[in-house]
């Protein structure tokens, strides 16, 4: 079946969906995106993702040419047209066509694309991380700038890890595509500053985990290595146990009970959607 993509207000076969090379996303990597999933053709946490999408656009000085209801209507049309029940939908807003390849001179271009997505519960699938000293530009914006993360892929493969963990001046931040949490004796902590506050991160902040307080507070690499458990959170991963960082085990080096309970509750929230 042909896959369809929106380019602005045009619904086109994927093979016909194109942008001019003068777009600032091509010329300078200027643009932003958001990503949410569908389960059984139903968008999950859509309002949260669209709120962040409009916030990112405002922070980058780009105007979305469609109202919230118009955008929701386009998403519904795309879902019906493609009929991919379990999927990931990416909204991309580019810098628009530029006369000099640097200055914003034209309206932003909107792309909406949909691809199949396997929904997994990763509670028992531990992942190993590699730390890297780095702070993203405009951390509160979900920009398309993934230069550092892509550049490090070769080093990740050579180190046998599945993801990077950014830290800056010993303060733990985030991963390129996920937020990061640690579990102490009585707290579940995630960084407060200089990160992108993900939608799943926000849902976890609202959970009631017996025996634990969920809080946002900056913590150090030393705190990480003293933790009982650690995990990543994102739209595609939900909560994904981290079993080692830089070759050092976290806790007993196995997925733990706290992340399993968090995933149980997250999947419950997703079912309500």
TrEMBL record:
It is an enzyme of class 2 (transferase). One of its GO terms (molecular function) is branched-chain-amino-acid transaminase activity. It comes from the Bacteria. Keywords: Aminotransferase, Transferase. Pfam families: Aminotran_4 (PF01063). It catalyses: L-leucine + 2-oxoglutarate = 4-methyl-2-oxopentanoate + L-glutamate; L-isoleucine + 2-oxoglutarate = (S)-3-methyl-2-oxopentanoate + L-glutamate; L-valine + 2-oxoglutarate = 3-methyl-2-oxobutanoate + L-glutamate. The keyword Transferase applies. Pathway: Amino-acid biosynthesis; L-isoleucine biosynthesis; L-isoleucine from 2-oxobutanoate: step 4/4; Amino-acid biosynthesis; L-valine biosynthesis; L-valine from pyruvate: step 4/4; Amino-acid biosynthesis; L-leucine biosynthesis; L-leucine from 3-methyl-2-oxobutanoate: step 4/4. Its EC number is 2.6.1.42. The keyword Transcription does not apply. GO terms for biological process: carboxylic acid biosynthetic process. Belongs to the class-IV pyridoxal-phosphate-dependent aminotransferase family. This is branched-chain-amino-acid transaminase. It comes from Mucilaginibacter yixingensis.
